[in-house]
Amino acid sequence: MKAIILFGHGARDARWREPFDRLADLWKAQYPNTPVELAFLEMMAPSLEEAVGSLASKGAAQISVVSVFFGQGGHLCNDFPVLLQACQAKYPQIALSATTAVGEDLAVLQAIVDFAARAL
Amino acid sequence: MKAIILFGHGARDARWREPFDRLADLWKAQYPNTPVELAFLEMMAPSLEEAVGSLASKGAAQISVVSVFFGQGGHLCNDFPVLLQACQAKYPQIALSATTAVGEDLAVLQAIVDFAARAL
Questions:
Q1: What is the pTM of this model?
Q2: Distance between CA atoms of A8 and A38, rounded to whole angstroms?
Q3: Does residue A75 have an active-site annotation?
Q4: What's the angle, vertex CA A47, arms to CA A9 and CA A103, rounded to 5?
Q5: B99–A77: do the CB atoms touch at under 8 Å?
Q6: Which residues, in sequence order, are CB contacts of A73 under 8 Å at separation 6+?
Q7: Cα A64–chain centre separation
Q8: Ordered per-residue pLDDT tens for chain A, 120 residues
């Protein structure tokens, strides 16, 4: 079974999490057969390892980790590969893969441009 | 003249900025008559005040500040209104307005879901 993790930065303020919950809800409505978990780098739970563990317990064999970040700075280039490697070592039976940051995707950027244009 | 500012968090790593530069380039290609500036909350230049000043010097009378953040946590709910008010006080001749975070927009979230689905 395939599954995805939507991986975000995390923040102190619980309101920050709302778009991530909406993302997961959209995913569940559109891809009900592909389990999704949120995971956060810091300040929010669950961690990436906890999310992988949760999906492993549901029988996931392949997990794609989608980095819900705009840019690929130190967190994604340095911290994230270490985290992902640790998860892979802990769950060797799972094929873990990772995408680029969503902010690298032209369609995501175009949606932001469209949003900005509507705000004018 | 109307103008927009794409306002992001900023990061230590210069690579983080790339999607913001691409966003500004997309905007310039599609809305060449509406000047755009990037601005950052911290760790990157220009600041919001510097970006407003730059657009003011180009003759902007109305500026829409688009928060390129996923969530509305402490930065957007607490820090940003203070910054915006300070800019408005410094440039009283400009009508400054602000959008919600782009992560509140359903079309942006859907583009992220579509990206995640392609990654499966």
A1: 0.94
A2: 8
A3: no
A4: 30
A5: no
A6: B11, B12, B13, B15, B16
A7: 8
A8: 999 999 999 999 998 999 999 999 999 999 999 999 999 999 999 999 999 999 999 999 999 999 999 988 878 888 899 999 999 999 999 999 999 999 999 999 999 999 999 988
Three-class SS state of B15? helix
Catalytic hit among A5, A6, A7, A9: A9
- Return d(Cα A18, Cα B71) in angstroms, integer: 7
List domains and CATH numbers for chain B: 2-119 (3.40.50.1400)
Q: Which candidate from B74, B77, B113 shows the least CB-CB separation from A30? A: B113
Three-state secondary structure call for residue A18: helix
Burial of A14 (0-12, 13-18, 19+ CB in 10 A): exposed
